Amino acid sequence: MNWPRRTVLIAVLCSLPSSACGSPAAPRATPSPAVVYKFAGVNATKNVDQVEGLRATIAWTVPPKVVPGYSVSTWIAFSAPSGARDVSYRIAQVGWIVEKGSGHPRLFWEWGSRSPSDMQKQLGADVRQARPLHVEIDRDGSGRYMFYADDILLGTGRVSWVPTDAGVFTELQNPAEFLPGTKTEPELVTGFEQKIGGKWVPYVGEVLKTSDQFQVDVSTDGAIRIWDLRQPSSS
Fold first, then answer.
1. pTM of the predicted model, to two decimals?
2. CA proximity to 173, closest of 40, 58, 37, 63
3. Per mean pLDDT, which range of 6-10, 127-131, 186-190 is the poorest?
4. Domain annotation covers residue 19
5. CB–CB of 129/63 below 8 Å?
6. Domain membership flag for residue 105
């Protein structure tokens, strides 16, 4: 699968009347109760330091349930967590997010190295539900990451760590929130590939989730289906 690549200079892009170049996420007060990250997806840990890029197509029709003050998101990422289920601030990710209960999915891309205060998050254009979203991350040996959506360069970031994990996840911040998707209409991730030695090859990982209420199915063709058993129409 080869997607057409348009080279986009950020300076030119940001001179246009568009939100594609993004804007820094505004700082907000810490919500109460505190954020509790829960997630479901697929993760890989073998030879991740040799992976030069990730790309996938994400689509969903059943929206998440979002609690005001929190968020739900789906993204592909490189990271270097300290444990198998730990939240890592050493992460570089791109995807969609329903932020703080706004109800409007938007592009986001984020990277960081040490702590929440070190995270750099950018918000971009609105994302339409039921419309496939193509996302990609490329990286080089210097720690530079390039974030793409629908073949457009969103931005770049630089980190000091070497990735040990790579995957795709849907994540929530409050236990009362629901992931998008039901059993009959799951969130769908297709065309998930990794770049090794300059060539795109199928991604291979293992299911990783923090709750039995979250379901992840990986078919023989590599398609990943994610849903939440608590969604009203789930059966």
1. 0.85
2. 37
3. 6-10
4. no
5. yes
6. yes
Residue-wise pLDDT tens digits, 195-218? 999 999 999 999 999 999 999 999
- pLDDT tens digits along 40-73: 999 999 999 999 999 999 999 999 999 999 999 9
Instruction: Determine the Cα–Cα distance for residues 100 and 72; give it in Å rounded to an integer.
Output: 8
Q: How many domains does the chain have?
A: 1
Q: Left if phi > 0, otherwise alpha if psi is -120 to 50, otherwise beta: which for 69?
A: left
User: What tokens were used for 62?
Assistant: 């059943």
Range of 89's domain?
31-228
**Mean pLDDT for the stretch of residues 84-109:** 84
| Tokens read off for 193 | 């590939």
Look at residue 2 and tell me if it is in a domain. no
